[in-house]
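Budget justification aside, the reviewers requested a transparent look at the raw inputs and outputs of the sequence design task funded under Objective 1. We therefore reproduce one unedited record. The lines immediately below are the structure tokens for a 378-residue chain.
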């Protein structure tokens, strides 16, 4: 699969731009602040209805505009599909597929698959649990677009449950029994949807693990320690939880966890267990990577995680579009060389770089010059 064209209107810094692409490697070259990342960000947005740079849609709309439009033409099995998304911050987004209105914007998810490696990925190792949850959830959504709806349902239920808990101090004094009954209704919904999300996360993590280990071994050989890289799901339910559980057992475990901490939740006015508080532990050998891995080791783990994602998506029968967003300046020569070896033969690789010299010669490919909102062949 590869992206044939990008059309943007009022997206980020672009009032209007159209770019034609080809299979293989394309490098967007230009000084910082010229709009290179904005182009590849638009492709990534279509794949998961989210940006790898910001958490909300508002920054994606050009200053002074009410909406942004992203058009992506992709080719799969010699057939073209045109995806158009209208981004309306604060309102419902709209989507079209081959110029026909989609029932829901999320209907476009999964048509274009991407793996994005960017400087922000260092947060996979050094950042907060939310960064690692986002990593696994974004990959889940690409493989199974229905998970976008599961995640949205869970977030909605969690918001309502937290609002109820915040009012608990007054509500319990007024009518304690009614308060508990209402909370139990939300508990049932939360456990139903939460079990789907956690079971899917753990299954995907199990699938990723051997690819992570293999990628790290290749990337870090002769540069870092020889320790094996691994990832483990860390549940907010505690160490005694069964990580091999099926969905039904996960539901039972979540239900038991909520019941065991009900008094504490009521006192604090906050949901204390559930997938929104889970984490992924990246390890080197027997020790955790966060706080102990060197800067180089952390980069190698982050890159290995993205390459593992690519292999999992590829196992479904189709190469994802690989986006390397301004990362070569962050990598030493050994890691650049090994990354080049790993991505050779990928259907389409899109690279952004301030200068061509940052990119290994084997990966330069076609060069497009980006300057002040215009894109042209170099």
């Amino acid at each position: 699969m590869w992206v044939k064209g990008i059309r943007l209107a009022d997206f980020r810094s672009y009032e209007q731009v159209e770019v034609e692409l080809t299979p293989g490697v394309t490098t967007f070259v230009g000084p910082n602040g010229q709009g290179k990342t904005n182009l590849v960000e638009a492709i990534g947005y279509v794949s998961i209805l989210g940006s790898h740079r910001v958490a909300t849609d508002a920054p994606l709309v050009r200053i002074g505009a009410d909406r942004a439009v992203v058009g992506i033409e992709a080719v799969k099995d010699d057939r073209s599909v045109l995806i158009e998304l209208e981004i309306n911050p604060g309102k419902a987004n709209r989507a079209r597929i081959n110029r026909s209105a989609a029932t829901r914007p999320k209907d476009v998810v999964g048509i274009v698959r991407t793996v994005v490696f960017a400087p922000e990925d260092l947060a996979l190792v050094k950042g907060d649990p939310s960064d690692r949850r986002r990593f696994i959830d974004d990959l889940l959504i690409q493989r199974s677009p229905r998970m976008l709806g599961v995640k949205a349902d869970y977030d909605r239920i969690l918001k309502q449950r937290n609002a109820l808990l915040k009012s608990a101090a007054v509500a319990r004094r007024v009518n304690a029994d009614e308060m508990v009954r209402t909370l139990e209704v939300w508990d049932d919904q939360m456990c139903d949807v939460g079990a789907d999300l956690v079971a899917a996360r753990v299954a995907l993590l199990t699938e990723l693990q051997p690819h992570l280990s293999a990628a790290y071994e290749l990337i870090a050989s002769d540069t870092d320690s020889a320790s094996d890289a691994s990832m483990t799901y860390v549940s907010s339910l505690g160490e005694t939880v069964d990580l091999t559980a099926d969905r039904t057992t996960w539901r039972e475990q979540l239900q038991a966890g909520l019941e065991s901490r009900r008094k504490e939740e009521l006192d604090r006015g906050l949901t204390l267990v559930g997938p929104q508080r889970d984490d992924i532990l990246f390890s080197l050998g027997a020790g955790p990577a966060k706080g102990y891995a060197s800067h180089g080791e952390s980069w190698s783990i982050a890159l290995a995680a993205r390459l593992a994602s690519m292999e999992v998506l590829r196992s479904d029968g189709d190469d994802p579009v690989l986006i390397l967003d301004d990362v070569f300046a962050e990598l030493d020569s050994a890691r650049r060389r090994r990354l080049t070896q790993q991505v050779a033969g990928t259907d389409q690789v899109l690279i952004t770089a301030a200068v061509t010299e940052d990119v290994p010669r084997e990966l330069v490919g076609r060069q497009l010059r980006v300057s002040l909102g215009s894109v042209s062949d170099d």
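The first helix runs from residue 36 to 48. DSSP finds nine helices and 15 strands in the chain. Computational costs for records of this kind are itemized in the attached budget.
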